[in-house]
DNA sequence: ACCTGTCGTTCGTCAAGCCGAACTCGAGGA
DNA sequence: TCCTCGAGTTCGGCTTGACGAACGACAGGT
């Protein structure tokens, strides 16, 4: 769930952002309103910056806060249709394994789900911060967090937090959709 | 690009995570290895925590660091097929408007792209932290960051950082794909 | 009523982050 | 060669976050 050390990551991230801006550390410190000595120590990996200090740097770098504390850059990942976890429910209800099959270590998973009317599937909350993306391939669906379900037509896209109960219900025959689960 | 203030957000996030765990502040402090007086001040919105302190809390809460500093929870968003930015290129090359049409304020956008062999589209880097998701609907594609392109078959899914140059090339006729752009 | 345990806050001390100034190093110009 | 300027590091001080202990408030048990 939680990953690598913070301090070295922060130091690298700051250097990376500064390189991207193409400015000196003195200039970055000036823009951020912090002492260049402070910035020097941060880039050296020394110390334990406060949130305000990091925030000031993130603002002038024009990047979200998380860019400075999360690991470097997301890699290129490919999930082959032939390999990925997919479940065809045919005319039967979704199995509970559909969403439970997500490997906990993975950052994202893709499922192709197919369903028939009446196959309502209620999913328990995933780990905090998990977000799902759903693109309807065919048929009509009703899906979303409990109490906030929306009707979806072919081609529609919906995203919602999945760390709370949520459901997928096919409203027409031969309904299918691509489901992307994004773990954090 | 960068959003709301940090301190109040952090205080709210910590309380929220602690509520979710259903434990007392004393217990959370004990697990995190920090003084409960420190945690008390943080939940009160007083002060300016160090990265290490916040990190310790995030670890025991089982959430990524960004959960504590970024705004609350992602909302449910729906992009209708009839409204969303979509371009059919038919037999002609992608127009440069394809990717440039992404509203800068949006957090995510969805495109349905169709292409024919020879229609290579090179995209300039998006803002830092932007990530793209691509699900192939039909045909074969070659896409990805410059130098790291991969071949994709129908149903394949790929995600990659889009803050660097990247390309999409259809390898077969009637190639189509769903493209999700995620801004940060 | 009394004791006991837990909760959350407040206070005094200590360590550490942040700051500004001084310093070293190196490149470019007269 | 000397001077000047900018980049980056190091050094004292001042401020502030983190800690442990003590405090009042409350609930449950005896």
Automatic annotation (TrEMBL), chains A, B:
A molecular function (GO) term: DNA-binding transcription factor activity
The keyword DNA-binding is annotated on this UniProt entry: yes
PROSITE patterns cross-referenced by the UniProt entry: HTH_CROC1
Name this protein carries in UniProt: Transcriptional regulator, XRE family with cupin sensor
Keyword DNA-binding (UniProt): yes
Gene Ontology, cellular component aspect: cytosol
Pfam families assigned to the protein according to its UniProt record, in alphabetical order: Cupin_2, HTH_3
Domain HTH cro/C1-type: 14-68
Species this protein is from: Pseudonocardia ammonioxydans
Annotated InterPro entries: Cro/C1-type_HTH, Cupin_2, Lambda_DNA-bd_dom_sf, RmlC-like_jellyroll, RmlC_Cupin_sf, TransReg_Diox_bact_type
The entry's keywords: DNA-binding
